[in-house]
Fold this sequence. Notes:
Structural class: alpha/beta
Shape: elongated
Bound molecules: zinc ion
Number of domains: 3
CATH superfamily of the largest domain: P-loop containing nucleotide triphosphate hydrolases
Radius of gyration: 29 Å
Number of strands: 10
Distance between the termini: 38 Å
Amino acid sequence: MEYNTGQTSDAVRRAWAVSFPAEPGCPNGRTMYIVLARKYRPQTFEEVLGQAEVVRTLTSAIAGGKQAHAYLFSGPRGTGKTSMARILAKALNCEKGPTPSPCNECAQCREITVGSSLDVLEIDAASNRGIDEIRSLRENVNLRPVRARSKVYIVDEVHMMTEDAFNALLKTLEEPPEFVTFILATTAPEKIPPTIRSRCQQHFFRPLSMEVMKKALAGIAEKEGVAIAEEALERIVDFSAGAMRDCLSVLDQLIVYTSGMQIGVAEVEALLGLVEDRAVEQLLLLLRERSVDRAVALLHQLMREGKDPGLVLDGMVKKLRDVGYAVVGGGQECSGGREFFAQFASVPLERLLDALSETVEYKERLRRESLQVVLLEILFLKLVKIIGKTEQDTPRTAPEPPAPAAAHVVLEKKTPDPASPAHPESLSPFRRKAKAPPAAEDTRAGSQAPDIPFGPEEWKHLLSGVKKRSKNLEAFLKEGRPERFADGVLTVHFSVSRKFHKTSADTPEHRKIVEEVLSQMAGRPCRVALTLSDETPKKLLDQPDVREAISFFGGEIDRVEE
Length: 562
Ligand SMILES: [Zn+2]
């Protein structure tokens, strides 16, 4: 079985890098889209986000006339190192300076802003041209600045320099001409020789906090007149892991992708291939119920949809962490809502932590190993042992309502089936039925057996048919899940947290589209019913007498009837 494992974050980032023109303006005079990272690049120290300490040290040194000859800016990508370097260059060369508040209006400031200053030279040490530029640096470093007060060399990715280049740089740093300032920027300070580091004033840039990024992103979206949902902002910030530039690149893409429409979580997830919260919850619930088989089937489905295995693990880590906090916090609800929390609230904290560290470890291993899906399946087996339900588990909160007396379980006598081989197309170590069980298959009391199979394949088919008619409707509809298909009526269920999606999909016009696609699929007139509830499903299977019956008959649940 071949999977599209989705784009890695790096691949996405590379794709962004080439999606937009590098320079603003357009030769034939049409207005061209200017990427947000460029448009909103900070131009003063005050505008730099989240690096208050660095700003304070730099500005007070400039105000006191105590500049260094060499600075080393280190920190993760997208945290503002190059922007800060340019502002520092302006502070040193502004015609009204040196000043901690460069005017941004004089010739020097303006030239630095657009990158045309002859005295402020930016070198990318990682590029081929950068190597040549560093070679010529030593010959030219003693030449006085052309127009500015001082000559500033901004060397980006300085850790990529060759040994020769480092030696040349070291000689210059040992006896720097008084009019030269070096600003070295790096994401890997440990790769820079200590002899260089010790001659620089070092500044550490922190990853931006979620709050800072969210606020900035919301502000920029507002200035751009883009309507974006709060939750969508959070997803983007989450994905960007502290790098503002990535945040803005995602917003750039979304503006194009949605052509100015409201941006919601569905759009962000569609763009980034993020794994929906609900799918992650479902995975963990299946593991809690010890249904490795169904968890693996769901995993394979996610892979077929092009989700990234790393993002599946990210989602699981986040959920387990939320549950951990909720348990420590004395039973307050976690982000997963009532049913999810009720299922996990009874897991002892130490087991949750074990599950969490196991998942984090596999996340690391995922980077190094190639059989990613198999790796995840092995993790699932381990997690079942850790968080799977045991006899001792007693619910801490949210007691389950008793199962209705009228319900009974239909058991199918289990007979070994030697003719059924391991899944032929799969690398999976698990025996599985030839057709994966539908993810929405429900063995709980209350749901009827479908009269026509309506599994993930059919659901996907329906969604893609709907998508051809209305992209928005498809985005709303896929937040629900097919509950049953009986008597020509497809019931699609939405959880309360998806009320907005349900309401949006449940208009006469939208229902008509779904029904037309569905009727075409079924070859007869069909209807669709959208339902909404947060009713906690009855845990019939947890009833002691039901368990006893199952173990007595040695069977497995075929279906549950009222
Ligand atoms: Zn100026």
